[in-house]
Amino acid sequence: MNALNRSWLRAVRISAFCIFLVIFIVMVRMYASLLTDYDPEDSTSSRLQWAFPPSLLSVPYFWVFWRLRDISDAKRVKKALALAVSWGSLGSLCALGATVATWTEKDWLGTVMISIFALLQLLLLGSAIKTYYGTERKPGDLLTLGTRFGVIVLIAVLFAQVIPSSSFLDMEHIEGSGADALRSINAAQTEYAKRHRDKGFASSLEELGPPPGAALIDENLANGRRYKYCITLTPASPDGSGHTSRYSLTARPNPYGNRGRRSFFCDESGVIHYTAADRAPTIHDRVLP
Q1: 227-283, pLDDT tens digit by residue?
Q2: Which pLDDT value is given to residue 256?
Q3: Where are the domains of the chain?
Q4: DSSP secondary structure, the chain, as one string
Q5: Taking the model in full, what pTM does it have?
Q6: What local confidence, expressed as pLDDT, does residue 3 receive?
Q7: Helical pair 74-104 and 59-67, crossing angle rounded to 10 deg
């Protein structure tokens, strides 16, 4: 290989290793968080199982980095470059899609981080293509590249079949909606207290809801419903001047079971606690990370 190809080859190796490192660090942090908050009664064990497949996505990138350490075998180099092209294509599409999603949600920190990951994927893809087509043509090159893309298609089909049918992911979505409901009500209560300094916090969800309420939460939430959760607002007794300075909120799955197990509790502090047991949550339960 000439000097130019060696330069592009180094770019392939460096970008592949950086991508592997990013995925590996994210997975380690995810596992550490899940193990720290492990609760055998809830879906933590399922989350641990589902966290494993994404960690396997780092393997092809490390394989590319490792295989290209020795370029004396042209056939071996081409196979590694074909793998880099296929996984770089998949990674670029996924990273760019995630960047658009975080940008739409105005998650600026997430957008910056995923954008950097997308640039690494594009660097890997571009340098791998440049190096691959700079090598001598051999019979079977198209088959080598095609089989790598074929594996990508099979993986995509597998995930498309497995992920939508996962009751665990459905539970994650439902439980997340319960916690989000409490966050929304907390934010509404803060705004309500600012508007009614003489009264303090609202004493019912209806007061926060559509007119004649303050129009700070939607109708379903004002009725104590959010997806599969029942929401309850319990105000503390007002002081002598009728000012309510404390309240508590609970969100319980209805029905309790495979579709949702976590019950949530919070007060005016905004700190959310949860329990996976089939009972009312309290301030003494675990804090939601």
Answers
A1: 889 999 999 998 888 899 999 999 999 888 767 788 999 999 999 999 888 899 999
A2: 84
A3: 3-165, 168-287
A4: --HHHHHHHHHHHHHHHHHHHHHHHHHHHHHHHHHHT--TTTTHHHHHHHHHHHHHTTHHHHHHHHHTT--S-HHHHHHHHHHHHHHHHHHHHHHHHHHHHHHHTT-HHHHHHHHHHHHHHHHHHHHHHHHHTTSPP-TTHHHHHHHHHHHHHHHHHHHHHHTTT-HHHHHHHHHHHHHHHHHHHHHHHHHHHHH-TTTBS-SSHHHHSSTTS-S-S-HHHHTTEETTEEEEEEEPPP-TTS-B--EEEEEEESS-BTTB--EEEEETT--EEEE-SSS---TTSEEP-
A5: 0.58
A6: 41
A7: 140
Which residue shows structure tokens 């880099």?
Answer: 84
